[in-house]
Design goal:
Elements lengths: L2 H5 L2 H15 L8 E7 L3 E11 L4 E5 L12 E4 L5 E10 L4 E9 L4 E9 L10 H27 L7 H13 L4 H8 L3 H6 L1 H34 L1
Helix pairs in contact: 4-7
The protein binds 2-acetamido-2-deoxy-beta-D-glucopyranose (3 copies).
Keywords: Immunoglobulin domain, Membrane, Signal, Transmembrane, Transmembrane helix
Protein name: Ig-like domain-containing protein
GO biological process, one term: T cell receptor signaling pathway
């Protein structure tokens, strides 16, 4: 095996390149950059990228406790300078606050770079506190009590609707007994809805009211006459 043959063996070429990288390109690897690709209420999608590696490095995602996260496949790009750029995406649930690490490392050359990002936990996902639940239940009880008392008061109130027969009996009573002005007003102020519903009833009512007024007039006349006679006496 000649010296030329040894030199052109692929492994030898690689070894030389690694040696050259170690000697001259040390520190050319870029610190990983983490980008937030999407960020909603429940999860964030992060992307990590690092360039200038030789040979191809590995990319790892770690959580705050140093556990490996399952991420998407690592994409590798080889530039014209034979150096590698690696990138990978990971989806992180916002169940709790977490410090995520992107680590890019090359075991053979004993190089590693890492970047951290803080993912705050989502407030929406928090369990409602016990005090909040107690306050809500308390408000429901108060509301139910108010509704109960209100219904009770309404049921005690007499029915304001007076039907036709009741009206007639009232006027009959009134024509017999001495009517006063307040009673007369009450009849006039009957709900107009009943009058609109039925034309005949409306006529009846107006007649009834007229009767009442006439009665009232005659009564006042008679009382005036009696007063006159009494004064004469
Ligand atoms: C994340 O890191 C910051 C400091 O870099 C620290 O204050 C915080 O407690 C860490 N959070 C978690 C969940 O590890
Ligand atoms: C990598 O370097 C560290 C010091 O920076 C050393 O402790 C460790 O033994 C090295 N590992 C290898 C595999 O060379
Ligand atoms: C996601 O968005 C929220 C608010 O919109 C912000 O507080 C949080 O820092 C963002 N997360 C990341 C990882 O940038």
């Amino acid at each position: 095996m000649s010296l030329q043959e040894i030199f052109w063996r692929p492994s030898a070429v690689t070894s030389v390149l690694v040696l050259l990288t170690l000697l001259f390109c040390r520190g050319s690897v870029s610190t990983p950059v983490i980008k937030v690709m999407s960020n909603d209420s429940s999860r964030v999608v992060l992307q990590c990228e690092s360039a200038g590696w030789y040979p191809e490095p590995e990319l790892l995602w770690l959580d705050g406790e140093g556990n490996l996260l399952s991420a998407g496949p690592t994409e590798t790009l080889r530039g014209p300078d034979d150096l590698y750029t690696v990138s990978s995406r990971v989806t992180v649930e916002k169940r709790h606050s977490n410090n995520i690490t992107c680590r890019v490392q090359q075991r053979n050359t004993n190089q590693s770079r890492e970047t951290h990002i803080h993912v705050p936990g989502s407030a929406v996902r928090k369990e409602p506190s016990a005090t909040f639940i107690i306050v809500i239940i308390g408000l429901l009880y108060v509301g139910a009590a108010i509704a109960f008392v209100w219904n009770f008061m309404l049921s005690k109130k007499p029915d304001t609707k007076v039907n036709e027969t009741e009206l007639k009996t009232m006027t009959q009573k009134r024509s017999r007994a001495r009517g006063d002005d307040t009673e007369n007003k009450e009849i006039k102020e009957e709900p107009p809805s009943e009058q609109l519903e039925d034309d005949t009833s409306a006529v009846d009512m107006s007649e009834v009211i007229k009767e009442g007024e006439e009665n009232q007039e005659t009564e006042t006349q008679s009382t005036a006459q009696s007063a006159l006679t009494s004064s004469e006496n």
